[in-house]
Amino acid sequence: MTTKNSVCARGSNPQMNMATEELTLTLRGSLLTAAKAKGLTVWYSNLSSTNSLGDNPPGEQVFQKIAKPLAVDSSGSVKLAVHPEEIYTITTLKTGQKGVAAMPSPPAKPFPVPFTQDFDHENISAPPKYWYDQMGAWEVQADPSKPDNHIMRQVSPVWPACWGYACTGPMTYFGPKAFNASGPKGFTISLDVKLEKDAVFGIGGSTGGKGGFVGLRLDSTKQAGFTVGQFHKVTVTLKPGSMSATLDGKPVNGQPDEVREGGGIKDGFYIEMSLDRYVMADVDNFQLSV
After folding, report:
1. Which residues contact 19 (CB under 8 A, 6 or more apart)?
2. Residue 127 half-sphere exposure toward CB, CA atoms < 13 A
3. Strand partners, 284
4. What percentage of the chain has pLDDT greater than the value 70?
5. β-bridge partners, 247
6. Residue 233 near residue 248 (C-beta atoms within 8 A)
7. Domain with CATH 2.60.40.1180 in the chain
8. Which fold has domain 115-289?
9. Which residues lie across from 238 on neighbouring strands?
10. Residue 286: CB partners within 8 Å, gap ≥ 6?
11. Listed residue (200, 144, 142, 149) closest to 171, CA to CA
């Protein structure tokens, strides 16, 4: 793969100039016997593309059969020219074809808002739809106090063995990085949350990187009314240049025992939810509206 397509999220790879190379493979045993008897067929896929979201390589670059089979020489070796951004399959099978999806992916479209997620029709112990974890383990579980009700629950009880450049409390994101708050009513996130032990709970929009979070952080050890062991209704409304929030229907006015980060957010953000420590936490009745 070229340097352009090998960028590591945990550091920088050195710049390297990639070029076509000739590979020599030496066969032994039953593979050599089969290759001499049946020959070796090669399929290849060229994965070069624009790297834009949803932009796959064109069909004529994927799983294409090389017409000329590989020849096995007297030493049991074969030679194959390999090119950057390509994957090869070498096999004694002569049959095979590029598959066709029974249900092709639909055209891309904006995430539907308003949106409601109560988790009741999602599988227990599975990740909730449209959420993806950065830290911790968030999954669908039965509500301990009401088993017929499904909730989204953070279930990892201990800090991980940290590595890389970051080690935070449980954190998960929702949906694409494509939400915007530029409409006349802004963008509102609403949910019910219950902490089983004291922690700081955060919910808002994130553009990524340092200082990219705009939202509300509630500390159960300081925030009046934000007690453990019971569900609380939390709403956050984001607008360009401003933010407002409520806790159980009452405005959160920025008192010292509550922390807000950032001012307003306009567009190109995803939903971020977090805890500052590894405690069990339950989320239900997640809603988005504009």
Report:
1. 84
2. 11
3. 192
4. 92
5. 234, 250
6. yes
7. 3-91
8. Jelly Rolls (2.60.120)
9. 187, 243
10. 116, 117, 118, 152, 174, 189, 190, 191
11. 200
Dump pLDDT digits (tens) for 116-164.
999 999 999 999 999 999 999 999 999 988 888 999 999 999 998 887 6
Pick among 2.60.40.1180, 3.40.50.720, 3.40.50.150, 2.102.10.10: CATH of 3-91: 2.60.40.1180
Range(s) within the chain of domains with CATH label 2.60.120.560: 115-289
In the DSSP assignment, the letter for residue 165 is T
What's the pTM value of the predicted model, to 2 decimals?
0.75
Cβ atoms of 280 and 155 within 8 Å: the answer is: yes
Phi, psi of 135 (to 5 degrees): -140, 155
> Which tokens belong to 14?
């050195």
Q: Exposed/middle/buried for 233, CB within 10 Å: 0-12, 13-18, 19+?
A: middle
3-state secondary structure labels for all residues of 221-280: CCCCCCCCCCCEEEEEEEECCEEEEEECCEECCCCCCEEEECCCCCEEEEEEEEECCCCC
* β-strand pairing of 267-275 with 171-180: antiparallel
Residue 284 CA to residue 35 CA, distance in Å, equals 59
Helix (H, G, I), strand (E, B) or coil at 206: strand
Segment holding 68, helix H or strand E: strand 64-70
What 3-state class would DSSP assign to 207?
coil
Cα(284)–Cα(231) distance, integer angstroms: 9
